[in-house]
Every structure is written in structure tokens, then in C-alpha cells.
């Protein structure tokens, strides 16, 4: 992995760690799949740190530009797949 995760200088160390865990979960959804409930926990923690939709979109765009992975599409799939236990994306 040759890219950096987006973060804010205003976040605490623990918040940065939790945001990185969220983006690692996005990567996992693309690379091998992730349990929906696990991803949901990471996303809810991310939203505690980044409650603003505008800021979320900005951070998601930065991550996608760096990694090629769309956080938006993984979150969308999580919300739409209420009965599925796994989220697996196609790159």
C-alpha cells in the first residue's frame, strides 16, 4: 500500500486510529469481503468522528483518489443489504 489515509489535525490519536480502521474495512470489502455487522461498527464510529456529510464526502473523495476504493459504494451496499451477512465489492 503506497498511499496515505486522510485525516484531520483536529482529531485525537484514538480518532485517527479509528478512522484508519474504517478505511481498512473499506479496503477489506474490496479485497476479500467483510462481515456487514463489522463494517457497520466501523462506519458508525467514523460518523461519530465525522458527523458532517460534507466533510464525509470530502474525506471519501480523498481516500478514493489515493486508493482507488470507493467508501461511498461500500457504505451504500451496507445500507442496501440488510439481510446479507457479507459485503464484497468488485474493483
What does this protein look like?
Pfam families: UPF0223 (PF05256). With 91 residues, the chain is mainly alpha-helical. It is 64% helix and 4% strand. The chain is built from 4 helices and 2 strands. Strands 1-2 form a two-stranded antiparallel sheet.
Largest sheet: 2 strands, antiparallel
Strand order of the largest sheet: 1-2
Mean pLDDT: 93
Query: Rough shape?
Result: globular
Straight-line distance between termini: 16 Å
Structural category: mainly alpha
Tally of helical runs? 4
Number of strands: 2
Briefly, what is this?
The protein has four helices and two strands. The chain has 91 residues and is mostly helical. Strands 1-2 form a two-stranded antiparallel ribbon.
List the helices and strands and how they pair.
Blueprint: H1 13-31, E1 34-35, H2 36-49, H3 53-67, H4 71-80, E2 86-87
Antiparallel strand pairs: 1-2
Task: Throw out a few tags for this protein.
2 strands, 4% strand, mainly alpha, 4 helices, two-stranded antiparallel sheet, globular, 91 residues, single chain
